[in-house]
Design brief:
7-stranded mixed beta sheet; 7 helices; 5-stranded mixed beta sheet; single chain; alpha/beta; 251 residues
Length: 251
C-alpha cells in the first residue's frame, strides 16, 4: 500500500495566534490521515519566535529550527534543508503559517504522488477575511509575473516530490529575495526543464486550501481579484463543508 511520508513545511514570523491555529489544525489532520500518509510537520521561525514555537512544537511533535527572517528566500531554503536532514520523506508540501489545507487536499496530494507526479499545486485557493468573515476564491496567477508565459499553480499547497527535489539538489530558490518567492521558484524549476502540474480544483470541489487574512499579511485581501466572494453566512457554511472551521478564531 502506497503510504508516503510528506513533510509539511511552514515559516513563522510573529502572528502567533494564527500560526498556532495552523499548526494545531494540521497536527489534527496528520492524526486523522495515519492510514493514508505519514504527515510530518516542520517549521522554521525567526529567532525572536523561538520562545513561542519551542513549547508548541514539543506538544504537537513539530520539527523546528530558527533562522533570520531576511532574506525570506534564505529562511525558507534553510528550513527546507533542516527538515530534509532530519526527516526521510517522499515529498514536501509548502504552506504559509496562515494557510490551512483540508484533509481532502492531502488525500488528493497522495493520489497525485502515487500516480507519479513530480510536483504540483492547486490552480485556485480561498482567502478568508477574518474581520468580515467573508471568503474569496482566487483563481491563481496562471502565468509567472516576470514576463514568462508558462502557467504556474497558486503558491500555497505546492508539493514537490523527492524525485524532483533530488534533481534540483533540494534548492527551490537561488536568489536572495523577500517577495515573489513563488515566482522565483517557478522560474528556477523552468530553467531546469521542470514545471509543476496544475491541479484544477473545480474537478476536486471537496479539496481546498484557505489563506487567512487577519490584517497583518504580506499581501492584503484588497490585492486580489476574486472569481467569487461569499459573505459571512455562506462562507461559514462553505468552511464547514470543507471541514476547515478550525481556521476561524474563537472568541
Amino acid at each position: 500500500m502506497f503510504q508516503p511520508t510528506i513533510i509539511l513545511l511552514t515559516a513563522i514570523h510573529r502572528r502567533h495566534e494564527v500560526a498556532e491555529r495552523m499548526l494545531r489544525h494540521h497536527a489534527d489532520v496528520a492524526a486523522r490521515l495515519q492510514d493514508v500518509c505519514r504527515l510530518k510537520l516542520a517549521a522554521v521561525c525567526s529567532p525572536e519566535d523561538a520562545g513561542f514555537l519551542g513549547p508548541l512544537a514539543k506538544e504537537l511533535d513539530v520539527f523546528w529550527r530558527d533562522q533570520a527572517n531576511r532574506p525570506l528566500s534564505t529562511k525558507w531554503q534553510r528550513g527546507l534543508g533542516f527538515a530534509a536532514d532530519a526527516i526521510d520523506c517522499d515529498a514536501v508540501m509548502i504552506l504559509g503559517s496562515d494557510d490551512f489545507a483540508n484533509e481532502a487536499f492531502f488525500r488528493l496530494a497522495v493520489d497525485r504522488l502515487e500516480k507519479g507526479s513530480d510536483g504540483f499545486g492547486p490552480d485556485s485557493i480561498w482567502f478568508y477575511q477574518q474581520s468580515s468573515g467573508a471568503l474569496g476564491r482566487w483563481q491563481g496567477p496562471m502565468t509567472v509575473e516576470a514576463g514568462d508565459s508558462f502557467p504556474v499553480p497558486a503558491g500555497a499547497g505546492r508539493v514537490f516530490s523527492r524525485k524532483l527535489l533530488d534533481a534540483v539538489r533540494w534548492r527551490l530558490w537561488e536568489f536572495s529575495c523577500n517577495a515573489s518567492l513563488d515566482t522565483y521558484c517557478s522560474k528556477l524549476l523552468n530553467k531546469t526543464g521542470r514545471r509543476l502540474e496544475i491541479l484544477p480544483m473545480a474537478d476536486h470541489p471537496e479539496a481546498a486550501i484557505v489563506d487567512v487574512k487577519d490584517g497583518h499579511n504580506l499581501h492584503p485581501w484588497t490585492r486580489f481579484d476574486f472569481a467569487e466572494v461569499l459573505p459571512a453566512d455562506a462562507a461559514a457554511a462553505q468552511l464547514e463543508k470543507l471541514k476547515l472551521q478550525s481556521l476561524i478564531p474563537t472568541l
